[in-house]
Amino acid sequence: MKNKLNLVLNIENDFVIPVNDIDIGKDFVLIAGPCSVESENQTLEIARAVKEVGANILRGGVFKPRTSPYDFQGLGKLGLKILKTASEETGLPIITEVMDVRDIELVNEYADILQIGSRNMQNYSLLKEIGKIDKPVLLKRGMNSTVNEWLNAAEYILLGGNKKVILCERGIRTFDWEYNRTLDLNSIPIIKSLTNLPIIVDPSHGTGNQSIVKPMSFAAIASGVDGLMIEVHNNPKQALSDRKQQLNLGQFKILSAKIKELYEFTKTLNQ
After folding, report:
1. C-beta separation of 184 from 156 below 8 A
2. Residue 29: partners with Cβ closer than 8 Å, 6 or more residues away
3. CA distances from 133 to 3, 60, 83, 190 (A)
4. Which residue in 167, 192, 210, 265 has the most C-beta neighbors within 10 A?
5. Domain-embedded: residue 9
6. Residue 173 has what DSSP assignment?
7. 219 lies in a domain?
8. pLDDT tens, the chain, 271 aa long
9. Domain range for residue 94?
């Protein structure tokens, strides 16, 4: 590594982050839910379904960083309230993205894990402020970022005092027109060799194509990942964002039945 990473590279032993009754970094974690919170009925239906088949944490976007300003931008505070309702009914803790320093206090009030998205991985003002809170943070790799840059971003959060950092590989830009992104699974064993921070994979954003989410989920598990974050929608064709990468409820049920079985089998291979 070119830069000196005092904290990231000196985390000793297995780094475990408790969220309710889940120990991220020790227990395999399955995060699932819609790309965007669109309504209370939609979110509750998805939350109930993913909980029933083994999801540990509910994801859902309420502040959406969209390429076009005319695309759906999320429900904001209303979306947070909907997620909280779903959490209270199902018992699933919540993860959602915070995009702006001004929204940290609001998102922190509702979410159990705060997500820093790929577009904000090098938003150093946001990272510094997130470093001041005492709540788990999921840091996604930037779509154009090296592993070194990603770990330096984690260093900003750790340096602020927040030691509850979870890394998330979500794919990098590709030159191939067949798919949107390359899911860089090389990063998993590299990260594992450099630090004991938990690392999960997002095969939904990592591929941009629901038809290959399943095999890439399996590949991620074989790479030694600590969990997966998968986008699930009750009607993907009508979704307000990322329609092509979201699994429907039936597809997720089939996938989740295999995930933990494969994890138990492969974890001994990565010891």
Report:
1. no
2. 22, 56, 57, 200, 226, 227, 228
3. 25, 21, 21, 28
4. 167
5. no
6. E
7. yes
8. 456 788 888 777 668 999 999 999 999 999 999 999 999 999 999 999 999 999 999 999 999 777 787 777 778 999 999 999 999 999 999 999 999 999 999 999 999 999 999 999 999 999 999 999 999 999 999 999 999 999 999 999 999 999 999 999 999 988 877 777 899 999 999 999 999 999 999 999 999 999 999 999 999 999 999 999 999 999 999 989 888 999 999 999 999 999 988 988 886 675 6
9. 23-270
The DSSP element (H or E) to which 159 belongs, if any, is helix 147-159
Neighbours of 18 (CB within 10 A): 13
3-state secondary structure of 22: strand
Indicate whether 34 belongs to any domain: yes
Indicate if the alpha-carbon torsion angle 108, 24, 95, 155 is positive or negative: positive
The one-letter amino acid code at 141 reads: R
For residue 251, CA distances in Å to 35, 50, 236, 258, 262 come to 16, 11, 11, 11, 17
Q: Kindly report the CATH number assigned to the domain that includes residue 261.
A: 3.20.20.70
Instruction: Judge contact between 207 and 230, C-beta under 8 A.
Output: no
50 within some domain: yes
Q: How many independent structural domains does the chain possess?
A: 1
pTM of the full predicted structure?
0.94
Give the whole-angstrom CA distance, residue 220 versus residue 12. Answer: 24
Containing H/E element for 182? Answer: strand 181-182
Report CA 134 to chain centroid distance, whole Å. Answer: 18
Main-chain phi, psi angles of 79, to 5 degrees? -65, -40
**At what angle are helices 40-52 and 77-90 packed, to 10 degrees?**
40
